[in-house]
Amino acid sequence: MDRSNALRMADRAMGLSRMPRRGRSQVAPSAEGAPIIGAQSARAPVEAHSTTPIAPRERAPVPPAAAATALRVVLSNHAEAATVQDPASRAQALQALRERHDRTCPHCTTATAHTHTVFGEGNAMARIMFIGEAPGETEDQTGRPFVGPAGDKLNGMITAMGLRREDVYIANVLKSRPPDNRTPLQHEVDACGPFLIEQILLIRPEVLITLGGPATKLILGTEAGISRVRGIWAEWAPPAGHGAPIPVMPTYHPAYLLRNYTAKTRGEVWSDLQAVMARLNLPARG
Question: For residue 254, what is the domain's CATH number?
Fold first, then answer.
């Protein structure tokens, strides 16, 4: 299959319509209004993904003192919670964490630029957890992660994998909208990030997909830019005593994909998703 045909297949798989070379700034939805999985012949070979490891952080990010005390108190419960196979009980544990976050987060309880906190949503027993950087304007208005144009694109990516949004879990590093949608600052990540760690420990997904630079930097403890590390399998090491490392696939944020609608970025994101599908033995749909 030549390169142009392969890219058309990737576009269809992620719910993208072909765009004219000029005169359009947004991605047009597919004519059917829903993403369509590509034919199996369009799947990129998994070997194309680099297996060169990114040096993972030996421990999870060290939280500031204000959050560290609360984190120590609850971590002892998470190893047991992660073995619970009752979805309702796991969902209740996440709800309790959400309530504690909204009461005690050193960042979100003092920040003033947001309307709602955006804790996360999805399947408490999810095999895949998507992690973004922070809520945007629409997320702030609704209290839900990844809604609006970027959310529509993420939904298309999930559907392309043969899954529903309800099958995965979606969260952000920062759970309140930064002023003017700017990139989260390090002290904000340090203050709010421990609650994301707790979410991961409760859900215990089989794969983490980090969306964009800030999420990837927190999870992998790297300063490398997303364009350097995307598509390379890495691992997130939980705090000592809290289970085995979790595989991580970094890829571009859906908002970046919308802003940079090129053959290169489309193909790279689709290749990253296919690598996750292959690792989890998710079937392709014809």
Answer: 3.40.470.10
